[in-house]
Amino acid sequence: MDAETIFYISIPSVLILILLSALPRYGSFGIVVAILSLLSIILIFVINYADFLIFPAITQALGISVILANNYTAPKKQNCIIKYIGGIYYATGYLTANIYGYVFSAENIIEGEEAQLGSAPERWEKIVSNVKFPFKYNIISSAKDIQKYREELEGQRGFLEFQISRESNSTNPNQMTIEALRRRVSILQARIDRISTGERPLKSIMYMETTAVGVSEKEATDALELQLNQLETLFSSFDISMTRIIGREMHFLHRFNYRIYDFKNISSIFQDQK
Amino acid sequence: MQFDAKTLMFVILIGAAFVLEIVIFAMPIPLIASVIAIIVLLCSIVGFSTKYYTYLLLPALRMKGRAIVLNADEPFIMSPSGNAIVIREGDSVYASSFVRIPIYRSATEMVDEEKAAFASMFGRLLTSTTEPVKLSAQMYIINKDDYINKIKARLNAAEERYSRLIANKTVDKGSSERIRGEVTMWRNLFENLSSSRSQALLVYGMVSAMGGSEEEAVNLAYQKAEEFAAGASAVLGVNAYIVRGDEILTLIEPNYMIPVETVSERIMQKNVEEAI
User: Which of A41, B43, B201, B234 falls 20 to 30 Å from B191 in CA-CA distance?
Assistant: First the structure.
């Protein structure tokens, strides 16, 4: 949890706790206020961690759609963006698509990584040749500040080395723990070495989008569901993490078609992809 | 994004909740105190929600009917120079330019080392700039109507020539055979073209810039795009170029990604697949 989130959670929570401290003032309604207060705190945490459940549930219950721009609407389910033009509905849906095993930055120092990276172009071509509908694979990225990243890694390495020496000097040193720590040190060292060879670390978010057409909204959204399922199936061979994006994050992904935000803002938009 | 509005809304709601709490401590009537407490809870929840939903909360206050209108205008306008799109968000002006990266290499023609090198080239491309860049691979539908019409016209012309020839008894057998072969060729091409998939894959990069005016934003975005194009050309060994005019629309507008002329064909194809 970052500092901003802690700030936004703590202040309303303190206010609610103050409210609870005044329970005698509510007389016989005290129990109701107490229950509502506890529910409010729970709701704040749910909004923070799973607003993708709350927001679409509210819009669906109240039948509220969101007009993102002229001809672009997020329907009440908030699971796609519909463009209606010339009597045709174009429904666009989004999926996260983090290729953890194929990351471009120095994140993945595992055995066989090179072979895996080498197989990526061929796998990609096989998938693309099997896709029979339009889709986009997007990576938004920017290089990190090398010096800052290096210092961060060196700090982590120093802490692990301290843990190894503490474990080694203990009365009953656990060899398995020491091995695990040494392995983590070697991963960090490999990352540091990569930076030394000129490779720059990367901040990135990856997502996919696909568009389906229909002469009615339902036809377009039904076709979209099929396309999204097919993408998930086809890209499963890529060892890829795919999650349907709905609600607020989807609104912002739609904006990314027209404008890219800086990473400070992107981090505040996406809860999981930081 | 209205980050200032976000802070302002949070402060107002939390401030209101705090003032109401003071009122609760001074309120002797339990029922009124309880009602105020519920208002405080609502202020606290909405106050927290401003972290993520400021962009929706303000338009929701002006909501008419059952639609929250974030923007009633077009999402962008094309710059007069045609090499960028311009986006207005509040008082800020942004521009985005697009760089097409034509890649014609296939993994099937590479050895293992080349494949790994090819994959890592994209890593180098992405780390070539500290500015945020969007790199996209897009599969889109080609509007092949023009091409089909051209082939159909050739087929019609060949068939007409052939029917004229067979009507003329003096023509030698070799000439009529040649024209018949031509008709068969155009017919085969036409039939294959109609039945084959008409999709294409392209790769492009996108950069954005903010400016004090539309011209400034467009110039800055164009400059960034030129830098990115130069980097992409050098890293991948291709001739990357800045996209202009209608080609930009293919990259951002769904109705250009799936041209309207191809929609009936897609729906028919889908129905056939479903029936099968």
Answer: B201
